[in-house]
TrEMBL record, chain A:
<protein>
    <submittedName>
        <fullName>GAF and ANTAR domain-containing protein</fullName>
    </submittedName>
</protein>
<dbReference type="InterPro" id="IPR011006">
    <property type="entry name" value="CheY-like_superfamily"/>
</dbReference>
<feature type="domain" description="ANTAR">
    <location>
        <begin position="169"/>
        <end position="230"/>
    </location>
</feature>
<dbReference type="InterPro" id="IPR029016">
    <property type="entry name" value="GAF-like_dom_sf"/>
</dbReference>
<keyword id="KW-0804">Transcription</keyword>
<keyword id="KW-0808">Transferase</keyword>
<dbReference type="InterPro" id="IPR012074">
    <property type="entry name" value="GAF_ANTAR"/>
</dbReference>
<dbReference type="Pfam" id="PF03861">
    <property type="entry name" value="ANTAR"/>
</dbReference>
<dbReference type="InterPro" id="IPR036388">
    <property type="entry name" value="WH-like_DNA-bd_sf"/>
</dbReference>
From TrEMBL, chain B:
<dbReference type="InterPro" id="IPR029016">
    <property type="entry name" value="GAF-like_dom_sf"/>
</dbReference>
<keyword id="KW-0804">Transcription</keyword>
<dbReference type="InterPro" id="IPR036388">
    <property type="entry name" value="WH-like_DNA-bd_sf"/>
</dbReference>
<keyword id="KW-0805">Transcription regulation</keyword>
<dbReference type="InterPro" id="IPR005561">
    <property type="entry name" value="ANTAR"/>
</dbReference>
<protein>
    <submittedName>
        <fullName>ANTAR domain-containing protein</fullName>
    </submittedName>
</protein>
<feature type="domain" description="ANTAR">
    <location>
        <begin position="146"/>
        <end position="221"/>
    </location>
</feature>
Length: 241, 242
């Protein structure tokens, strides 16, 4: 398939999803995966600011705990923080260069340990405000062509729109509240992952898969499944069925 | 997305009540003034239902919350059950059947606009904050940001089972880290308590051992620390491994 067609398909898929009562966390998870595929980068993550102005991970192309922790490490330092504060994209960051990563604290070291060599960060903008950032990580040295950078920015914009489209909040067009709602959805999933990991003695990555595998064929949101797991209204046996 | 200086100054008071018998300190009226509303009230939940009014501006706000509790319907009840914000800046424009009994009573009380914020952290819901105003009209953007910060701070205080002077705001911010919630879920299974209480055990343990909540949570997730017997009252001892 031609590149343009793949991009177009990703956009159409996004628009289709947004017209329904969609699952924002699952959507962002898939969008991150798509983005990684289209731009031929290793991993993609999305962070948004909480009510304290601190960046929180909301989704990533892979739910591997180590990757999520790496994104989370950017709450104070890292490419996403710079990008969020300045509102400008930061492309082709060489994670092996002490000069390029001087302001990143121990983030650069941890990223290198995880095998990443290059990073890009794109702002998630809402009118004249930046609400978060999308980060692209690569395990080899590479630069993003201008056309690829535009695709990445378009996908970051779609992610922003998705967060602001959550139907559960139709009563408010209040954007900050919608960001909070999305972050709470993410936290509910983390709580449920903890419950399942302990109950079945599995790891947290597997716990996410359990939630997702249960939710998708039943067309319910992962967040709702998480809510039920935490409330104890969904039994272990139901989940494994 | 940070609090105004006016709100920031008030947040400190929440954890430092002048009367030790109060669950939440601070001044609801002063918070209401910063938010551009006439009154504020917090009711806490048990078993997912609105159960007790614990912090309120005297007068209309208290009576409006009592009404919701008595009637079992209203924006605060909805905010609690759905976990979403309920913002109605003009009650005369609300579909009458939505809160059939409450709406005429609210009008009689002189409440024209209500803004309800669930006090929640992930899947855990501990109560609702209800703001009301006699004059209709939406909240300003800056006031909305302040209200979200206030709701987060109130959530943290209620979750702890009350004001605890000395708990820093850093601890509140720690409540938004993934690892803290993964640990909360794990502890709830280990100690056989709800996740809300598991978060309290985690924070209390960190406080007693003078460690950060994050560091303790990391130990739990790495299965180096297990909580057991988290029942009410007694010291929730934990086993340290390896």
């Amino acid at each position: 398939m031609a590149r343009e067609e793949s991009v177009l398909e990703a956009m159409v898929e996004a628009i289709d999803t947004l017209t329904e009562d969609f699952d924002v966390i699952d959507f962002l998870h898939r969008l991150s995966g798509r983005c990684a595929e289209l731009l031929d980068v290793t991993e993609v993550g999305i962070v948004i600011a909480d009510q304290y102005g601190v960046l929180r991970t909301i989704a990533a192309s892979s739910e591997r705990t180590r990757l999520l922790e790496l994104f989370a490490l950017q709450h104070e330092q890292g490419p996403c923080v710079d990008c969020y504060r300045s509102g400008a994209a930061r492309m082709d960051i060489d994670l092996t260069s002490p000069e390029a990563t001087a302001s990143f604290g121990n983030f650069a070291e941890r990223a290198r340990e995880a095998g990443f060599v290059t990073a890009h960060a794109l702002p998630m903008r809402l009118r004249n405000q930046t609400v978060g950032a999308m980060a692209l990580f690569h395990t080899r040295a590479s630069s993003l062509a201008p056309a690829d950078a535009r695709v990445a920015q378009a996908l970051a914009d779609v992610a922003t729109i998705a967060i602001l489209q959550q139907r559960t909040l139709t009563q408010t067009s209040q954007e900050k509240a919608q960001l909070q709602h999305a972050l709470n959805s993410r936290i509910a999933i983390e709580q449920a992952k903890g419950v399942l990991a302990e109950r079945w003695n599995i790891n947290l990555d597997e716990a996410f898969d359990v939630l997702r595998s249960y939710a998708r064929p039943r067309h319910v949101r992962i967040t709702e499944v998480a809510q039920q797991v935490v409330a104890g209204s969904l039994s272990a046996r139901d989940l494994r069925a | 997305m940070v609090a105004s200086s006016g709100m920031a100054a008030l947040l400190h008071g929440l954890r430092n009540p002048t009367d030790a018998s109060l669950l939440i300190g601070g001044d609801p009226d002063a918070c209401a003034a910063v938010l551009g509303v006439d009154g504020a009230a917090v009711s806490v939940a048990s078993d997912g239902r609105q159960s007790e009014l614990v912090w309120y501006s005297p007068g209309v706000s208290a009576r409006f919350d009592d009404l919701q509790f008595t009637l079992g319907e209203g924006p605060g009840v909805d905010a609690l059950s759905t976990g979403s914000l309920v913002l109605e800046h003009d009650l005369t424009r609300v579909e009458p059947s939505r809160w059939a009994v409450l709406l005429p009573e609210a009008a009689a009380l002189g409440v024209a606009a209500v803004f309800c914020f669930p006090l929640r952290i992930g899947a855990v819901r501990v109560g609702a904050l209800t703001l009301q105003r006699a004059v209709p009209g939406p909240m300003a953007d800056a006031a909305m940001e302040d209200a979200l910060v206030l709701a987060a701070a109130l959530t943290s205080v209620v979750l702890d089972g009350g004001a605890r002077p000395g708990v820093l705001e850093e601890q509140d911010a720690g409540l938004h880290r993934a690892v803290v919630h993964q640990a909360g879920g794990m502890i709830s299974v280990q100690a056989e308590v709800p996740v809300a209480q598991a978060l309290v055990l985690l924070r209390a343990y960190a406080y007693r051992h003078d460690r950060s909540v994050m560091a303790v949570a990391e130990d739990v997730v790495a299965r180096r620390l297990r909580f057991r017997d988290g029942g009410m009252g007694r010291d929730p001892s934990a086993d340290v491994r390896g």
